[in-house]
Design brief:
The chain has 5 helices and no strands. By secondary structure, the chain is mostly helical. It folds into 2 domains: 61 residues; 53 residues, no CATH class. Helix 1 runs antiparallel to helix 2 and helix 2 packs across helix 3.
Protein backbone atom coordinates (compact mmCIF):
# COMPACT_ATOMS: atom_id res chain seq x y z
CA UNK A 1 0.00 0.00 0.00
CA UNK A 2 1.34 3.41 -0.92
CA UNK A 3 2.25 5.76 1.90
CA UNK A 4 0.25 8.91 2.29
CA UNK A 5 2.04 12.17 1.76
CA UNK A 6 2.28 14.34 4.86
CA UNK A 7 -0.76 16.54 5.30
CA UNK A 8 -0.21 20.30 5.45
CA UNK A 9 -2.19 23.51 5.22
CA UNK A 10 -1.61 23.50 1.47
CA UNK A 11 -2.96 20.00 0.82
CA UNK A 12 -5.43 19.23 3.63
CA UNK A 13 -8.61 20.03 1.67
CA UNK A 14 -10.27 16.79 0.65
CA UNK A 15 -11.71 16.30 -2.82
CA UNK A 16 -13.86 13.21 -3.28
CA UNK A 17 -13.42 12.42 -7.00
CA UNK A 18 -16.58 10.30 -7.44
CA UNK A 19 -18.67 13.05 -5.86
CA UNK A 20 -16.93 16.17 -7.17
CA UNK A 21 -15.94 14.91 -10.62
CA UNK A 22 -18.79 12.54 -11.46
CA UNK A 23 -21.98 12.93 -9.39
CA UNK A 24 -22.11 16.73 -9.31
CA UNK A 25 -21.24 17.21 -13.01
CA UNK A 26 -23.79 14.59 -14.11
CA UNK A 27 -26.54 16.28 -12.11
CA UNK A 28 -25.48 19.76 -13.24
CA UNK A 29 -25.44 18.73 -16.91
CA UNK A 30 -28.81 17.01 -16.51
CA UNK A 31 -30.26 20.15 -14.98
CA UNK A 32 -28.88 22.37 -17.77
CA UNK A 33 -30.24 19.99 -20.43
CA UNK A 34 -33.65 19.92 -18.74
CA UNK A 35 -33.76 23.75 -18.65
CA UNK A 36 -32.72 23.82 -22.31
CA UNK A 37 -35.61 21.50 -23.22
CA UNK A 38 -38.03 23.55 -21.12
CA UNK A 39 -37.03 26.73 -22.97
CA UNK A 40 -37.14 25.06 -26.41
CA UNK A 41 -40.33 23.05 -25.76
CA UNK A 42 -42.35 24.70 -22.97
CA UNK A 43 -44.81 22.44 -21.29
CA UNK A 44 -45.75 20.87 -18.00
CA UNK A 45 -43.60 17.75 -18.50
CA UNK A 46 -40.40 19.70 -19.17
CA UNK A 47 -41.23 22.09 -16.33
CA UNK A 48 -41.69 19.11 -14.00
CA UNK A 49 -38.38 17.56 -15.13
CA UNK A 50 -36.57 20.82 -14.22
CA UNK A 51 -38.27 20.83 -10.80
CA UNK A 52 -37.42 17.14 -10.30
CA UNK A 53 -33.76 17.63 -11.31
CA UNK A 54 -33.52 20.64 -8.99
CA UNK A 55 -34.89 18.54 -6.13
CA UNK A 56 -32.35 15.79 -6.81
CA UNK A 57 -29.46 18.25 -6.83
CA UNK A 58 -30.63 19.81 -3.57
CA UNK A 59 -31.03 16.34 -2.00
CA UNK A 60 -27.56 15.22 -3.05
CA UNK A 61 -25.88 18.38 -1.79
CA UNK A 62 -27.84 18.36 1.47
CA UNK A 63 -27.01 14.69 2.09
CA UNK A 64 -23.31 15.53 1.82
CA UNK A 65 -23.74 18.57 4.09
CA UNK A 66 -25.49 16.41 6.70
CA UNK A 67 -22.60 13.93 6.67
CA UNK A 68 -20.07 16.74 7.04
CA UNK A 69 -22.07 18.23 9.93
CA UNK A 70 -22.04 14.88 11.74
CA UNK A 71 -18.28 14.71 11.25
CA UNK A 72 -17.97 18.23 12.66
CA UNK A 73 -19.92 17.15 15.74
CA UNK A 74 -17.65 14.13 16.23
CA UNK A 75 -14.53 16.27 15.74
CA UNK A 76 -15.88 18.77 18.27
CA UNK A 77 -16.37 15.99 20.83
CA UNK A 78 -12.96 14.45 20.13
CA UNK A 79 -11.22 17.80 20.45
CA UNK A 80 -12.95 18.66 23.71
CA UNK A 81 -11.78 15.34 25.14
CA UNK A 82 -8.27 15.91 23.77
CA UNK A 83 -8.16 19.44 25.17
CA UNK A 84 -9.33 18.30 28.60
CA UNK A 85 -6.44 15.82 28.66
CA UNK A 86 -3.72 18.10 27.25
CA UNK A 87 -4.48 21.58 28.58
CA UNK A 88 -3.17 22.77 31.92
CA UNK A 89 -5.75 23.00 34.68
CA UNK A 90 -5.95 26.79 34.34
CA UNK A 91 -7.07 26.57 30.69
CA UNK A 92 -9.58 23.70 30.98
CA UNK A 93 -12.53 25.91 31.98
CA UNK A 94 -11.92 27.93 28.79
CA UNK A 95 -12.64 24.95 26.48
CA UNK A 96 -16.33 25.86 26.40
CA UNK A 97 -15.45 29.30 25.00
CA UNK A 98 -13.99 27.83 21.80
CA UNK A 99 -16.30 28.03 18.80
CA UNK A 100 -17.06 25.00 16.65
CA UNK A 101 -14.91 26.24 13.76
CA UNK A 102 -12.01 26.86 16.15
CA UNK A 103 -12.25 23.34 17.59
CA UNK A 104 -12.34 21.89 14.09
CA UNK A 105 -9.21 23.82 13.09
CA UNK A 106 -7.38 22.94 16.31
CA UNK A 107 -7.57 19.23 15.47
CA UNK A 108 -4.61 19.74 13.13
CA UNK A 109 -2.32 21.08 15.88
CA UNK A 110 0.21 18.72 17.44
CA UNK A 111 -0.18 17.84 21.11
CA UNK A 112 2.93 19.85 21.97
CA UNK A 113 1.77 23.13 20.45
CA UNK A 114 -1.91 22.78 21.33
CA UNK A 115 -1.94 24.53 24.77
CA UNK A 116 -0.17 27.65 23.48
CA UNK A 117 -2.34 27.74 20.36
CA UNK A 118 -5.53 27.42 22.41
CA UNK A 119 -4.42 30.28 24.64
CA UNK A 120 -3.62 32.40 21.58
CA UNK A 121 -6.94 31.46 19.95
CA UNK A 122 -8.89 32.52 23.01
CA UNK A 123 -7.03 35.77 23.55
CA UNK A 124 -7.03 36.87 19.88
CA UNK A 125 -10.29 35.16 18.83
CA UNK A 126 -8.50 33.53 15.89
CA UNK A 127 -10.48 32.35 12.88
CA UNK A 128 -10.31 28.82 11.47
CA UNK A 129 -7.91 29.99 8.75
CA UNK A 130 -5.69 31.87 11.22
CA UNK A 131 -5.45 28.81 13.47
CA UNK A 132 -4.46 26.57 10.56
CA UNK A 133 -1.81 29.09 9.44
CA UNK A 134 -0.39 29.24 12.97
CA UNK A 135 0.14 25.48 13.25
CA UNK A 136 3.82 24.57 13.08
CA UNK A 137 3.59 20.77 13.41
CA UNK A 138 0.61 19.50 11.45
CA UNK A 139 -1.40 16.59 12.87
CA UNK A 140 -3.08 14.98 9.84
CA UNK A 141 -6.76 14.08 9.57
CA UNK A 142 -7.05 11.55 6.75
CA UNK A 143 -10.54 10.37 7.74
CA UNK A 144 -12.49 13.46 6.73
CA UNK A 145 -14.73 12.98 3.69
Amino acid sequence: MAERSPQTLANHVKIDPPFHYFVLPVFAISWVVSVFFLVRHPGFLHFWIVIFNTAIIVAVIRARQYALKVQDRVIRLEERLRLSALLPESLRPQIAKLREDQLIALRFASDEELPALVERTLSANLSRADIKKAIQHWRPDYWRV
